[in-house]
Each structure stands twice: as C-alpha cells, then as structure tokens.
C-alpha cells in the first residue's frame, strides 16, 4: 500500500501568453473548452485534502488566465491546503494578488527567462514580458506574500547567473530556484539549442556554491542541475506514484507532469474516478511503483530505493522503453545517447521551436 501523496500540481489551464521553448506542457495543448469547471476543481481539491495532500501548486500554462482562480484558491484554503501560485507574472498585478491573498494564497513563485530584458523577452516569445514580471514582483512585495524567484537556465542565459542572484535579492525574494531545463516536451524539441556546455555548468555551479555561503540566512538558493551531466539519475518526483500527483487541465491524473508522453498507459480522469481510487488502485499509478518492475542494472543496484530507477519518461524518450534504466545513469546500457546529445549541442544553431497551440 502506497503512502498518501503530499503535493498536488494543479495545471488549471494550458493557456499562456508566453511561448517558452522549454515549456513542460505537452506538445498537444488542451483547449479552454476541455478544462475542468470551477465546481469540478473545487470537488477535486476537497478529495485531495481528504486523501492527505498538504500542498497545492496552482500552475499552467498561466493559471491567472483562469478568471475563477481566486475561487479555487479559496477552496484550497477551506480544505486546509497550503496554496502556492506558480506564475509568469504577465497577466495581473496588485489588485489580483490582494484578492488571492484574501482567498488564502500563501506563496508566489515567479518565473524569469533572464535578467537581461531583451533576452528574457526573446526566450519568452513575448515583447515587454520582463517589465511586466518586474512590476509583478513589486506587487507581490506590496501585498506581503513571500516570493520565490524561479530562474530557468540553459546555454543561452547561463552566463548571467551571478546577475540572476543579485536580481532575486533586489526583487525581495526569500528564495531563489535556479533550475536547469529538463528535457521533456518542448524542451526536448529544443534540446540542442538549450544544453549548456560543461564549462558553463561548472562555472555556474561555482558561482552558486559561493553565493550560498555568502547569502546564508538571507536568500535560500535551490539549484537543479541538468540530468545530462549526472552519473546517477535523480529521484524523479521522489519515485513514481510515491509523493506527488499532477492534474491536467482536462482532469487527467498523472504521477508526473510529463507522464502523458508514455504510450500504452490509460491515465484515469478525475471526472470518472475519485482521487483515492486513482492513487491507490489504478494500473497507471501502480505500474512503476516500488522496485518489482525493475530490470538490470536497477534490480540489483544498491541505489534502487534512492533514485527509483530514475525518470520513466526520460527512459522512454531516450531509450524507447519506459521500463529501462534512465539513460542518464552511467550504468545504463543506453548511456551513449546522452553523450551523443551533448556532442550535437556543441554544433547546433541557437534558434527555437516556440511553444504554440497546433
């Protein structure tokens, strides 16, 4: 029997004014007509609290594209859920934030594409985005909500990581997440233009390590490194179906945000089943739980209950089989595809395939 989940990612919409080339949303984006209704979301949030979920992260797309977002935040608060807003900061300001805070919002996580305004807007695919984000950060501060700044980094902005740390402090953030792009969905389509060089990664890591020492007690810095330079895979979502569930705009329940990329799995909908039934009894959530599904070298590895075999989506995308060892592991028989990807990135132009509704 699995333990109850701790966190729920509520992808309330795929609509977003930004067109980021590393967006984790699937290549086929949900239309507004297929989104869960306000009442469906309110029911689902109640089920999540009853199941044992402690935190709900309102995300998208851009969650502020939903006019009922304050109502959803209020529903989360009524059920005792800690609510976090993950936003691009381009569709609102102090008025909306005050409404969210009054409804029970506890935290805001604001993304930037770069500290340089021109490069930020180029990567985001939206003119004026950097200015809107900066004003939004000031509005968060004025409202009194705690702020996390999320800097998504890759080859085309990583050299400015020192300025990113300075900007987070200037914006009044209590926490900074420097997250290297992870290569799924739109990011996989743009991988060759986004993968940093080893030199860039090592220098960025040196700067982050130094800043953590200097700013200890002032600014918390979380640092998510790119999988492709690791020798062992990360514990993706703390293991398949162990701590986390994801709700798509149309109500599909997933063990991670990229799981829809896996063929042959029928992910159940909150419109047809309760969250408890999906979490504990669905074939989708039980398929890669624990270690019984593992083949070698994972089955006999002493880290099998540390990294849980790595990422199932990455195994499928890179090795063609979700049941294989994550190719980022140096012990994987498919590790060569990682080395090839790094070599290809050194000779590829920097143009993007931007996120868009097909």
Describe this entry's structure for a reader.
The chain is 34% helix and 13% strand. The protein is built from 13 helices and nine strands. A nine-stranded mixed β-sheet has the order 7-6-5-4-3-2-1-8-9. The mean pLDDT is 95.
Brief write-up:
This protein has 358 residues and is α/β, with parallel strands linked by helices. It is built from 13 helices and nine strands. The chain has a nine-stranded mixed beta sheet with strand order 7-6-5-4-3-2-1-8-9.
Number of helices: 13
Strand content: 5-15%
* Straight-line distance between termini: 41 Å
Q: Give me the side-by-side strand order of the main sheet.
A: 7-6-5-4-3-2-1-8-9
Provide the descriptors you would attach to this structure in a database record:
nine-stranded mixed beta sheet, globular
């Amino acid at each position: 029997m699995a333990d109850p989940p701790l966190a729920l990612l509520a992808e309330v919409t795929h609509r977003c004014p930004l067109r980021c080339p590393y967006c984790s949303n699937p290549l086929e984006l949900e239309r507004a007509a297929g989104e869960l209704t306000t009442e469906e979301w309110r029911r689902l949030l109640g089920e999540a609290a009853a199941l044992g979920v402690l935190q709900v992260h309102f995300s998208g797309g851009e969650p502020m594209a939903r006019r009922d977002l304050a109502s959803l935040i209020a529903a989360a608060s009524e059920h005792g859920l800690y609510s976090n807003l993950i936003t691009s900061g381009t569709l609102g300001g102090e008025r909306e934030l005050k409404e969210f805070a009054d409804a029970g919002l506890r935290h805001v996580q604001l993304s930037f594409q770069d500290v340089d305004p021109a490069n930020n807007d180029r990567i985001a695919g939206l003119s004026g985005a950097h200015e809107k984000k900066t004003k939004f950060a000031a509005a968060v501060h004025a409202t009194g909500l705690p702020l996390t700044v999320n800097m998504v980094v890759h080859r085309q902005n990583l050299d400015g990581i020192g300025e990113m740390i300075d900007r987070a402090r200037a914006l009044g953030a209590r926490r900074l997440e420097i997250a290297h792009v992870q290569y799924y969905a739109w990011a996989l389509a743009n991988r060759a233009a986004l993968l940093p060089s080893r030199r860039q990664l090592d220098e960025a890591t040196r700067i982050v390590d130094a800043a953590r020492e200097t700013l200890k007690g002032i600014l918390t810095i979380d640092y998510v490194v790119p999988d492709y330079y690791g020798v062992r895979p990360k514990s993706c979502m703390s293991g398949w179906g162990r701590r986390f569930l994801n709700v798509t705009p149309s109500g599909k329940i997933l063990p991670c945000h990229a799981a829809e990329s896996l063929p042959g799995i029928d992910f159940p909908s909150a419109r047809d089943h309760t969250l408890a039934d999906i979490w504990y009894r669905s074939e989708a959530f039980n398929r890669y739980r624990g270690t019984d599904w593992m083949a070698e070298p994972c089955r006999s590895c002493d880290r099998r209950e540390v990294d849980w075999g790595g990422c199932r989506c990455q195994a499928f995308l890179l090795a063609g089989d979700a049941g294989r060892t994550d190719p980022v592991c140096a012990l994987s028989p498919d590790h060569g595809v990682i080395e090839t990807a790094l070599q290809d990135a050194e000779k590829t132009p920097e143009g993007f395939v931007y996120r868009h509704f097909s």
